[in-house]
Structures are given as structure tokens and as C-alpha cells.
Design brief:
elongated; 13% helix; 156 residues
Length: 156
Amino acid sequence: MALKPDKKVSVISKDSVFEGNFFVNGTLQVAGKFEGTIKTSNQVVILESGRVKTNLNAQKVIISGTFIGNINAGKIVKLTSTGKCIGNITTPVLNLEKGALTKGDINITGSEKLDVNKIVKDSYASTPGFDSLTGKNNNQSSKKTPKKKNKKSKKK
């Protein structure tokens, strides 16, 4: 993926191995191997030759190589046709090209950090139930039926 020339770009080149903490103001492009902590307020681009193992927080993440760890993206995660990912992904937008591989939980948050569980449950609860479609009164099923008293047999 081509990057705009006016952006600040830090590069871990193809034949490089980096282990540790990497804090970058701008874009991090990984063509080599990285293991540790990455912190950026912008984007991380993992090229096809890139191998990354970390938990990642960034605005944009583009994976064409291999990624192991969890991703929390503010704007978008894109796995290209050569991208491979093991880990959980949380993002408002997920773009998977044909051929991309991923394993883990995927949480699509919308444009903001939203409580997805609450939104989905509220949406489900706001629609009519089966009883309204069949004409049955839902209140009848919730009424308790009186219990029959068992008569005790008398011994002689």
C-alpha cells in the first residue's frame, strides 16, 4: 500500500528484527519482524514480508503480512488478500479482501465506541414477538395455573 509522501513514516525494513517498545508520531511501516509494544496515534502498515506480535492501538491498521495479537482501531482495520491475523479485532470498519485469514473475536463498533451488546439487545426487543404475529395473547402464557391439590389416601 502506497503511503502519502507528506506523512511522517517510520520503517522497520525487511531484513530487520526489532524487539521492544516502539512509540511513533505518524505511521509505522513494518516489512521486517517486530515483537513488543507499538503505540501510535496514526496508522500501522504491515507489509507482506512483515511479521508483528503485539497488542495494537492505532487509528488505522493495514495488514498484508502476519499479525499476532489484539487490535483496537479507532477508524479502520484492513486485511489485504495476503494478510493473516490471529487475535481479537475491535474497529468501526473492517475490510477483508478475498484470501485474507483471521481467527479471533471481531467487534464492529460503528463510528463511535458503543455498547454493541446493548444496541443489539434493544433492537431485538423493540420488534414484535411471535405472539403478535400469531394473534395469541402473551399475557396468557405468563399467568400461573392453579396447582391441583393431591388428596392423601387414608390408611385403614
